[in-house]
Amino acid sequence: MSDAAPYSVRDGIAVISLNNPPVNGLGSVLRPAIMEGIRKAGSDPEAKALVLIGSEKAFSGGADIREFNTPKMSVPPSLPEINEAQDAFGKPMVAAIGGFALGGGLELALGCHYRVALPRSQLGLPEVKLGLLPGSGGTQRLPRVVGAAEAIRMMTTGNPVPAEKALSLGLVDQIVEGDLLEGALAYARKLVADGKGPRRIRDMKVKLEGDPKAFFEQARTEVGKASRGYPAPLEIVACVEAAATKPFDEGRAEERKRFQSLVEGNESKALRHMFFAERQTSKIPDVPEDTPVREIRQAAIIGAGTMGGGIGMSFVNVGIPVTLIEMKQEALDRGLATIRKNYANTVSKGRLKQEEMDKRMALITPALDIAAAKDADIVIEAVFERMDVKQDIFGKLDATAKPGAILASNTSTLDVNEIAAATKRPQDVIGTHFFSPANVMRLLEVVRGAKTAKDVLATTMKLGKRLKKVPVVSGVCDGFIGNRMIEKYGQQSLFLLDEGASPQQVDAAAQKWGLAMGPFTMGDMAGLDIGWEIRKRRYAERPNFVYSRVGDRICEQGRYGQKTGKGWYRYEPGSRKPIPDPEVDEIITQYGNEIGIKPRQISDEEIVERLIYALVNEAAYILEEGIALRASDIDMVYLTGYGFPAYRGGPMFYADTVGLPKVLASIEKFRKGYQGEVWKPAPLLVKLAKEDKRFNG
Ligand code: NAD
To answer: Which of 303, 608, 669, 672 is 20 to 30 A from 427 (CA-CA)?
Structure first.
């Protein structure tokens, strides 16, 4: 028998033990082994029933992701073929679920005739999170067990249900306290003793409230509203409708057809791309996965402002003690009060227990002297964005931090190598660019300096994951990956105004396309003075470029965004709702007249192309320069840090979807306009477009 699923018989009950660590993925070795076991049990006169069991941690996590996009995916038998063998099996078959049964794992368990589970088990069909639907009978079997309403809820959210809930839904027949195998064997023996045979889900009827037509009409309305343009949830509803109104085999055929069309659709391709992109970010070609890492037991953070406070929360949220250092008592008190207020808010919403908040607050030690960082395994500096201030701090850290401590800067624009040069240990210096609010945002750009040691990089990446962030490696450059790109996007948004668009038109087009918010709403939120400062620097650095100064005109009026009650929009006191402002239109028109541009009607399509291709072109430079390790890292930065819609798959994946020759053609067209060299296409883009290749392989 195969090691992947050893077969045994215990006192008249056959047992197939799934054995494909870590999660019993239903890969090319496990599937045939299960099939062989089922056949064997079927003809084994000793076996009166069959138990399928996984490990305590995982019954099965579904498809084996290590085999995605490889020929191994199609090694027979398929999961539906196993399901057919389960349906045809003439003796009772019991799934013994320890840990989780997810996706194909739950579909395998639904192929069994009975299910028992450990109390801490989780059962779910999360395919929707990858823009898919359960394609191996899940949409047909689940509603036959739990009813149409609950099946729709489980499959359109993708969230698993715990064993207790599964029991109440009838998805699990018994909860086993103690040893899972013993419990499952006892359950199987009782079935045999009671003369119970196979109980095939395919023969059951789907339960639903009221008239089916009205029920599914209602379901479509509700799910349609919540799924905002993603096709998979509505496809799931259609499959459940088929389950409720058609014979099993017809429903299965419909499921297969709808699954296939989702697999081929751009949304699911994008979501699957992002799923793998997240797993790629920690792979660094010259830093092997087994690089020894330094131990991080405690941290110090210098600066308890906007960022320092949020970073501190990220650490104590996962139980790492933090020393929070400021220069003045007042600033320290303010920083601590903000942290306390943030936690208290979460407590008041019932999302955090008071004891947990107290525990986290107790992990923070306030201090007023950099020397307090002497025992920290990592020090993160988050003070004002000024090189002299940062260098002064790193000089002091060099003198006081313990040997081997990682010295990190949260700078968003400054040269990490220059900061490192203020120490005699540049190998220990690295950039950790958190995003605001740092306790919420998942993105962490890990900036690798010229002299950063490999183990420092490996440690910081691992720490990032421990902090529940998505760490992405960036090389040193102005703005790193994300902000360097967003500057070009911001520039385009201003040019669009010069040519005749309004802030609200640009924002609406961007949002309709799928961005969390448009550039002007975002600018007002972040504060317009930040961009203004950067632009002033650029005017001096690159005098030959064309710039729109319309943003400066807005700032010159003291309109800095939400914080001043006016920016690209105006705001009622206490409100964050952007209201279009005729004064802004006036400023825009006047500036357009000054530079002699005749306003024209700009289509939403052009707005989106200009904004997104500006990101793509800069990203191509970034990739070519080796600032980003791979295209999918750039996609991940935009997904986790900039509100890019997951179903577009990030700027690089989106460009791949459009086709690079087409992207390049648009860029060349824009280049002929008055902005000229702003649109100089990146050589990498030109090369890939010529070869009709993609950024993402
Ligand atoms: P902030 O002004 O809110 O906080 C800075 C804090 O540092 C202040 O409380 C100040 O008192 C303290 N400080 C200054 N000098 C100090 C010293 N010598 N010792 C101890 N404390 C000192 O600024 P912020 O927005 O938190 O930004 C901090 C850093 O993070 C900057 O480098 C910034 O570029 C970067 N950053 C900011 C954001 C953002 O959205 N705000 C995002 C990413 C990165």
So the answer is: 303
